[in-house]
Design brief:
The chain is 39% helix and 16% strand. By secondary structure, the chain is an alpha/beta fold. It folds into 2 domains: 123 residues, Aspartate Aminotransferase, domain 1 (Alpha-Beta Complex), CATH 3.90.1150; 227 residues, Aspartate Aminotransferase, domain 2 (3-Layer(aba) Sandwich). An 8-stranded mixed β-sheet has the order 2-9-8-7-6-3-4-5, sandwiched between helices. α1 runs parallel beside α12, α3 runs parallel beside α10 and α11 runs parallel beside α13. Bound molecules: pyridoxal-5'-phosphate. The site of pyridoxal-5'-phosphate has 12 residues, from α4.
Length: 394
Amino acid sequence: MAGVACPLRPMFSRRTNWNLEPNRLSEALAQHRASGRPLLDLTVSNPTACGFAYAEAAILRSLANRESLVYRPDPRGLLSARSAVAAYYAERGVAVPLDSIVLTTGTSEAYSFILRLLCDPGDAILVPEPSYPLLGFLAGIEDVELVPYPLVYEDGWRMDFRALESAISPRSRAVVVIHPNNPTGHYVADRDADRLAALCARRELAILADEVFLDFALDGAPRASSASRGDTLTFTLSGLSKLAGLPQMKASWMVVSGPEPAKQRALDRLEVIADTFLSMNAPVQLALPTLLALRPEFERQLRARVCANLAELDQQLAGQSLCRRLKIEGGWYAVLQIGESTSDADLALRLLREKSVYVHPGHFYDFSAEGRLVISLIGSENEFAEGLRRLLSL
Ligand SMILES: Cc1ncc(COP(=O)(O)O)c(C=O)c1O
């Protein structure tokens, strides 16, 4: 009816009703970049921008396979690619059947498939706090609620099982563990992994184990993968993004393990979800065996970089008493602690404005206390040392 006002229906879903206003730090960063002044970026975590030597010719050759000219869709991923993933686990002594592997375009897609498999709208997953900031978005776009369970620091990080158990509700569907966690750099201890599996089996929860940083232990010792778990339904995620330093390839996977019949039922349903998208492209799947085989050389360079930057960090920290770093066992990041009363947002802003140094404030990762800064350990050694000098001079 022309001329009759009708109430406006919102154009967009409530789940996308994010606050998209820039925060103080992102605004200052944009201004700094626009000014053209040099920036020392201590957050850099894109391995392809950190000066590592990649086997360029082999990488490019692997993408030019003639078989890419033919479309042979397989919802779980091409057998040749899944065999390479199974070989990766076999090197760790874990026998993973090929039909328990589902390839995905990035780890985020694997998270999304699993949330669709396990959760109805309003269901919840338990996630460590502090941890990877993208989890909130991944859950939100699937209408899943994130319920944090705290990690506690006492000369090293550990799970707080009492707090975890009290966070479980009838709507909980899974517990996420990040092994090692980003940004705390701690692995889930073997005894905690067993305790968690027993708890999840008892409460009928799945485990979602994000192992993208698994192979970057500072001491170089291999750590156990959840892919070997048979006692409770477990989804183990990993991919080329971190393991081979190739995030641009968008090649990841999940391994489903656990008791029958839950495991088979999960795989049958996942196959339908994957079949609905068939998102992973043939050239990268065909290249995956080669790209995965290039991993040890990247791993060697990355570990050398992290160790050198960590040694520099410790040397510079030794000359003062206001700032300390928290213990880490692996991964690509370090957490600095500067008292409990210093606002990390203010500090990050001052560092950017006064010293042209960019760091992440701890609240990006939901640290429960103030005064935490997160820095990446994979940036070039000169920039890292200079950035730190400026940080400590503030
Ligand atoms: C814990 C964790 N999981 C997953 C990812 C992303 O992996 P992908 O690039 O395979 O999506 C990241 C990226 O930083 C991460 O920190």
